[in-house]
Amino acid sequence: MEKKKFFGWPLTVVLGIMYFCSSGFVLATAQIVNPMMLQDPSMGLTGTVLGAGFSLFVLMQGLPSPLVGQLVAKKGAKFTMAIGGAIMLLAALAMIFIVKDAIMYFIIFGVIMSVSTIMAGQISVQSTVGEWFVAKRGVAMAVTMGIGGLASFAAPLVVNNIIGASGGAWQSGWYLIAIFGIIIIPLALFVVKNRPADIGQEPDGGASQAAGGAQKPLKVYKNADKIEYRQAIRSPFFWLIAVGGSGGFCAFSLATSQGVIHFTSLGFDPGTIVAAVSVMGIASLIGKLVIGLLADTIEPIRIIGAALVLIVIGILCAAMASNPAMMYIYYICTGLGFGSIATNLPTTVANYFGLAAYPKNLSTTMLTTTIISSIIPIMAGALYDATGFATTAFFVTAAIVAVCAVCAFAVRIPKKKQA
What we know:
Blueprint: H1 8-38, H2 47-59, H3 65-75, H4 77-97, H5 102-132, H6 137-165, H7 171-190, H8 207-210, H9 229-232, H10 236-265, H11 270-291, H12 300-319, H13 324-353, H14 358-373, H15 375-387, H16 391-409
Helix pairs in contact: 1-5, 1-6, 1-7, 1-10, 2-5, 2-10, 2-15, 3-4, 3-5, 3-14, 4-5, 4-7, 5-6, 5-14, 6-7, 6-11, 6-13, 10-11, 10-12, 10-13, 10-14, 10-15, 10-16, 11-13, 12-13, 12-16, 13-14, 15-16
């Protein structure tokens, strides 16, 4: 009987598309559309309200994460993704037809839209990759996140052109998100497979990898022990990893919620700003795909530490920006750093604590990163309302990211490499 071709690699492409349509595209779209909503008098928004909405969005990427992780563990990723796609569709339509004040903005964008993206994308996608790969987990995660990362490059250009073609109607951006919600549902139901055993296969396509073994020594630490959730969260290294990874999300929250506003207030040309935001997308893609491929060769937590140092340099350039070159440096450093962290953080959690409680471990990690990073947009929005500039917020965020870098470098790698 002919052996079935390993489905894991085609699945990484499908999962990348799922991530692209949800976690990748929604927030990238919001950083273009929501500032336009701020300029619409009928919406009744202020800088503080706008920033608070982003803060709530980021916070809701984490607060419900344990529940979403539990749903993935019990019902499977495909079920969770399908429900997430349906919620995302409804939330996008609500942004167009229902949101007319700050309260509804908070509820629809800050809560419902945010939860839909982690159900259809982040947690479900990354948990599924972890189930399908062990020895080549870093490469698989890089492929998936690389495809998803195309959204950060494509969204600013696509959404900006769609809004331009519609005569400046910001609502057209949310129509596009509604279409993506429709795409996600059948992909989840008919293509996604929760784990290799569902179709008679094994992780990485072979029995040795499925057992956690490998034909040759692994270059990075990959724990093969069965570590329960309660054991993982008792480890100080679990929290150092979570706090370290938070730095990348703090930087991304600052860029998406205040980047356009900050550089506009400094007098930069709007077209140049949009182009720079797109460059951040390219840099993020490089970080997710190219640097992500190194995660099976270099300890991913060390990659995270180096990425955080790069991010600090970029934020300081933005705070003192006096020319477009410094703005581009900021977006390149932020994109490259965040992309590297977004890919390597779930890989780090799986490598360090195994797969026994991976959805719960990952969701708790994301809860930590979002609680920390959610303070950034509202802090920056309040400072902007008070001073007319976000410069101080950039300096504060640089300090926070620097502390996160110290945490990442403080994680001890066990000497014994477990296959």
